[in-house]
Amino acid sequence: MNDRNAAAVAAAYVQTVETIDTRIDNSRSDAQRRAAHWLTPDLAKEVAKGLPGGAGWAALAKKSAWTKATVTDVTPSGADPTKGLTADRVVQVEVTTYGRSRKPIGKPTTSTMTVALQRTTESKPWRVTDMQTY
Fold it and tell me: % helix / strand / coil in the chain, to the nearest 5?
């Protein structure tokens, strides 16, 4: 993965955050921690605090559920993902949840997200500063 390409970093971050496995993860926070190296240090500290599993997580865990995320960059043309010090990428992610039987549970969900990134110089890697789902 080329971390000097904002599109690649945004896609890798979203794919990692949206990929969970209740057989090895304790909550969605584990996926967020796996993706933390693509975050700015300040945002990584916030993510490290974690989120509780909740009732939804318990229901997924009961089915030994895991997800597969497919990410597509849909940023309007003209935004070069290798130039500049700040970038905004728009991605769509389709998440399919599977259960113990390896068959999908329900229908895939599709979300659109904006991922904000920054870096200190063009020779440094991109880091995620914010992500919004809409």
Answer: 30, 30, 40
Mean pLDDT (the chain, rounded): 93
Nearest to 91 by CA among 31, 35, 131: 131
Nearest to 67 by CA among 34, 45, 116: 34
Q: Hey, is 95 helix, strand or coil?
A: strand
pLDDT digits (tens, 9 = 90+) for 87-106: 999 999 999 999 999 999 99
Name the pairing type of β-strands 109-118 and 66-73: unpaired
Cβ–Cβ under 8 Å, residues 73 and 88: no
Structure tokens at 23: 């057989």
Q: Which of 78, 85, 88 is nearest to 113 (CA)?
A: 88
pTM over 0.90: yes
The secondary structure of 16-27 as a DSSP string is HHT--BTTT-SS
